[in-house]
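Consider a typical record:
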Amino acid sequence: MALDVSTTPTLRAGRRTRGKNLGLLTASTAMDNAENSITTVLFPLMREALGLSSSALGVIVAVSKAVGIFAAVPWVFLAKRFSRRAVLATCSGFWGVWVVLAGLSTSFTQFVILYGIAAAGFAGAGPIALEIMGDLYDDRRRGRATGMLYGGVAIITGVSAPLFGQLSGFDDGWRYGYVLSGCMCILIGVLVVVFLDDTRLGEGERRAGDAAVKAQNVVAGVRELLRIKSFRYILVQRLLSGQNVMMSFGVVFLVEERGFSTATAAIVATPFAIGYLLGTVVGGRLNDAVHRRWPASGRVMMLQASQLAFAAAAFAELQMPTSSIGFFVGIFAVVGFLQGQVPVVNRPLIMAVVRPEQRALAFAVSLSTVEALAYAGYALLVGYLGDAIGLQGALLLVVVALTVVNGLCSGLLYRPYARDSAAVRDSQVVPSSDEGEPSKPDAQ
């Protein structure tokens, strides 16, 4: 009987173990998202206390993402050399001490520097957590698993944002928010060290030993990744992604353009998070179903559909002149639902075209480097355009128009994805336990 290496990690980890690990991976991944959400909610307070303009929020978001361009890959290779559990606990947990220090800063410049150092740690959490998750679940279930992970992230973000928004009643509320957030990070680091099971040493990865040694070298590893045509297209697709800045500026948009108070505007973080949660869970299962029905093209179809639908919902959100918070509660939920489709499609796309021992590096390059670069650039652009023409016009250009272009251009992925995903499946040849002869894994 042939052993399918794509499912080997799942075979060696029980359901309860996978669930526990997925919960810890979710908590560690959530910290970067939670910090962004807290910054969005607390920025109006910081702006008032320090006398800042809207462009300052663009600077904060840009710096926090830009440092990930340089920090993510070193964390990934530390995780290859040492314990993934220890490295993940450090970068996603104990590194939270820098968030605490940022909350105690005495000037905007000092805050940006300390917050940037904190973000340099969080940049390593996502790639490492996704690599471990890829070990735990086979290709047929990765959409659902990714949906559960990012759904959990949405819950944590959705609960924390409005709670931190209540700190607007205090003069130094923004400081209290960052101190509390940093302490939460440190607690998560402790939980990861104590409870996370590292599943690295599985049969499939031991048999991939020669390739894993090659992956230790960052230059050789990146060159190998860039030889994958689908991966190159995915990098371009992430460069064109302006979706992420919508929620970064969403609360500020409601305060500046629609006249809501900070506490009232912060309410939309909860429906956005609920929508995001439903988008990841429902989208993950739908993505798996579409992938099983059309394995060569289903994920690309889902990617295009989610992007074009997001652009339509974001356009409605920005153009509706109403001053009713009820409308924005509903539309932010829809936008969150469609935004939740992105990770449950994008992450399995990458896992399908990249060999297991290269996935952490692939996520470091695509998410913490390329996507972070795009996020940083678009955040700066929206901030400065917001000062010049208003946030409504800036978000229409950067979010809506760019997402339409991105959705249309994603169609270029169909042919290379079909070829590259098949090549990865065909390359996973293992000895048969019955005859000792090489055998390909069962078709998925």
About this structure: The beta strands are 430-431, 438-439. The two ends are 16 Å apart (CA to CA). Confidence is low (pLDDT under 50) at residues 1-12, 201-215, 429-444.
